[in-house]
């Protein structure tokens, strides 16, 4: 496997992790919130808050990552203005 193939495989593996991030981040944060809630005796408050914050955080990360990737594609496009 040459360098360009390894680079492509690595990039594809990075892109496939977005689904796991989207699913697991809110769940893990909700579990942390649940543990804290149970120790404080206020069960649903931090669980829901941490899950919403986790979902919002991963959504923002995916949005800006997508936006950056599209800007990079746009800069390499044939119609992009070149500053030579």
Describe how the helices and strands are arranged.
Elements: H1 3-40, H2 43-76
Helix pairs in contact: 1-2
Question: What does this protein look like?
Answer:
- The mean pLDDT is about 85.
- This protein has a domain of about 60 residues.
- With about 80 residues, it is an all-alpha fold.
- Helix content is about 85%, strand content about 0%.
- The protein is elongated.
Keywords summarizing the entry:
single chain; 84 residues; mainly alpha; 86% helix
Tell me, what's the shape? elongated
Fraction of residues in helix: over 70%
Rg is: 19 Å
Protein structure class: mainly alpha
Nutshell version of this structure?
With 84 residues, the chain is mostly helical. It is built from 2 helices and no strands.
């Amino acid at each position: 496997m040459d360098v360009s193939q390894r680079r492509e495989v690595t990039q594809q593996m990075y892109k496939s992790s977005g689904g796991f991030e989207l699913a697991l981040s809110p769940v893990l944060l909700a579990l942390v919130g649940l543990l804290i809630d149970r120790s404080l005796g206020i069960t649903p408050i931090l669980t829901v808050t941490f899950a919403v914050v986790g979902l919002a955080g991963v959504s923002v990360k995916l949005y800006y990552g997508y936006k950056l990737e599209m800007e990079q594609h746009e800069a390499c496009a044939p119609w992009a203005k070149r500053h030579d």
